[in-house]
Amino acid sequence: MTDPTRPGYEALAESRMMTRSEVAAAKRSISELSKSLDQIQRQLINTPVAKTNAHEVAEKLLAASALRESLNRHEAQVLSALPQSKGGKLSDRERKEISGYYSTGHFTQGALAEQYGVSQSTIHEIVATKRGDD
């Protein structure tokens, strides 16, 4: 038996492929992070600055800018590490998720198609069916 206190011990984590829903959630998270950073930077730029807080506001703005630069530099690499959907039928759960996200008004059919690795026409069919427009 391997002793976890001895050098050279490696813990093996359970390995499994991400589901299509998990991939879509990761893509949404990255997109939302980008939008949030935009909002934070705008908020900091519009923060009234007095002698007492100028340094603090500047530090926060620099930190947000550094995070934005890092996200921009690494976003494509992180996204390329996600499993790519090879088509296939969407599950009922995924169809419900898509319909729910679309109904919020925060996601276009194109954005959802990219997140779930399907065509925009597939998303259209899902949301049209949900509305009874088919």
Notes on the structure:
- With 134 residues, this protein is mainly α.
- It has two domains: 19-84; 86-134, Arc Repressor Mutant, subunit A (Orthogonal Bundle).
- The chain contains five helices and no strands.
- The protein has helices at 20-45, 54-81, 92-103, 109-116, 120-131.
- Helix 1 (20-45) runs antiparallel to helix 2 (54-81), helix 3 (92-103) packs across helix 5 and helix 4 (109-116) crosses helix 5.
- The mean pLDDT is 86.
Topology, element by element:
Blueprint: H1 20-45, H2 54-81, H3 92-103, H4 109-116, H5 120-131
Helix pairs in contact: 1-2, 1-4, 3-5, 4-5
Characteristic key phrases:
2 domains; flat; 64% helix; 0% strand
Quick take:
It contains five helices and no strands. With 134 residues, the protein is mostly helical. The longest helix has 28 residues, at 54-81.
What is the overall silhouette? flat
The proportion of residues in beta strands is under 5%
Our measurement of the CA-to-CA distance between the termini, rounded to an integer number of angstroms, reads 61 Å
Total strands: the figure is 0
Major sheet description: none
Q: From the helix content, strand content and strand pairing, which structural class follows?
A: mainly alpha
CA-based gyration radius = 21 Å
Helix-strand sequence? HHHHH
Mean pLDDT: 86
| Tally of individual domains | 2
